Amino acid sequence: MNSTQTSLVPEGPGSVNWTDRFAARARIGGGDLTAILSLVGSADTITFSGGFPAPETFPVAAMETLVARLVGHDAAVAFQYTPTEGLPSSRVAVADLVESTQGLRPDPADVLVTSGGIEALQLLCGVFVDAGDAVAVEAPTYLGALMAFRRSAAHVVGISMDGGGLDVDELERHLRGGGPVPKLLYVIPDHQNPTGLSLTLERRRALVELCSRYGILVVEDVAYRELGFDAEPLPSLWSLAPHTVLQIGTFSKILFPGVRLGWAIGPRAVVGAMAAGKQNADQCAGALGQRIMSEFVAGGHFPAHLAAARRLYAGRAAAMLSALGRSMPPAATWTRPAGGFFVWLTVPAGIDTTLLAGRAQGEGVAFVPGAPFYVDGRGRNQIRLAFSGVPEDRIDEGVRRLGRLVTDSTRMEA
Ligand SMILES: Cc1ncc(COP(=O)(O)O)c(C=O)c1O
């Protein structure tokens, strides 16, 4: 198309306004994430917005041999459809990986291989959430999950977090309050998106006990679990209560998003119904990605691969924390993540970070404002900073630009 052509079929008199005909579910928000991620500035912009894995962690050398072998010797499987639940080798690989990192082995027959973590959430919504059903989430929580719950017209309730993760006492007070009991609780216990915080061991135990008492399905998203910088991870919620917890995992952060693969394990009835739903969705996750993943697991590559990724992210997190210390005004506070991709920054109450994000574009720095991560209007003076995709030497400059903006806005508020 040349530069004067904008469309092959121009809008004109008599053309239908298709948006008027959209299904009701397509009118329920959903544009938040797209709008935020499209806030790009100049080519020089340092972007702390997307939760993208660092390309430096992609195992390119291992893939060169592995993919060539699959193409040469395994095309009949790797290029074919797969069973809806996943190839047997992929389900075994997920079971092996989960066993090695969580100390409990799921039966491979109960593993559903999905096209990423977000598909697992969508399938779960299809099985579990009718319009108006109550769903509880951490406040704040992952935008993609909020969008999935909203599309199902769920009534989403946000339970506060503090330095120890979800406030389980607040959840208990909410349950005792006599309102509708949520059908499920969605929680990211390790290095959470967006705060970087983790749920303490004591709260993990209390949470699964409370939810099993009330008959609430705990949906545990372990997207960042294997990316702790130092300490051994705490027990997964699924390993503490496999009959109460549906675990959703993804290979996007620990391998690469191009494989577009995730998993669901948990109560057999739930996983089975999700698999039935998948038959009406994409039918199966891509075979090539599944073969790449299972060969990578079977080849024993994961421990060294994860160790290298942890080192890289730990360096970036440390660079961001020390840059924040140098550049932020005294009234700002931030989390100190022990893993994952994110720091959560709180600036003085009068500063609207959605407006600040617009001004930051002009200064060559991008971030995600806090409000969309909540369901109830909180977070207007908060910011999610993803350090994962920015090299250490650029982190300092990006935070310096942001610090200048926050300092100026703080003065204007004073
Ligand atoms: C907590 C959480 N869960 C799930 C996902 C989505 O993973 P996937 O790329 O596998 O759909 C993300 C991606 O940002 C995430 O942060």
Walk me through what this model shows:
It is a single chain. The chain is an alpha/beta fold and 414 residues long. It folds into two domains: 145 residues, Alpha-Beta Complex (Aspartate Aminotransferase, domain 1), CATH 3.90.1150; 227 residues, Aspartate Aminotransferase, domain 2. It is 41% helix and 14% strand. The protein is built from 14 helices and 14 strands. An eight-stranded mixed beta sheet has the order 2-9-8-7-6-3-4-5, with helices on both faces. A hairpin with a 7-residue loop joins strand 10 and strand 11. The relative contact order is 0.16. It binds pyridoxal-5'-phosphate. The site of pyridoxal-5'-phosphate has 14 residues, from helix 5. Pyridoxal-5'-phosphate (PLP) binds next to helix 5.
* Biggest β-sheet: strands ordered side by side in the sheet: 2-9-8-7-6-3-4-5
| Gross CATH architecture of the largest domain | 3-Layer(aba) Sandwich
Taking Cα atoms only, what radius of gyration do you get, to the nearest Å? 22 Å
Q: What characterizes the major β-sheet?
A: 8 strands, mixed
| Parts with pLDDT < 50 across at least 5 consecutive residues | 1-5
Q: Under CATH, the topology of the largest domain is which?
A: Aspartate Aminotransferase, domain 2
* N-to-C SSE string, H for helix and E for strand: HEHHHEHEHEEHEHEHEEHHHEEHEEEH
CATH superfamily of the largest domain: Type I PLP-dependent aspartate aminotransferase-like (Major domain)
Beta strand count: 14
First CA to last CA: what distance? 52 Å
SS-based structural class?
Answer: alpha/beta
Strand content: 5-15%
Task: Name the bound molecules.
Answer: pyridoxal-5'-phosphate
- Helix % is 40-55%
- Overall structural domain count: 2
**Bulk shape:** globular
Number of H/I helices: 14
Mean pLDDT figure = 93
Name of the CATH class of the largest domain: Alpha Beta
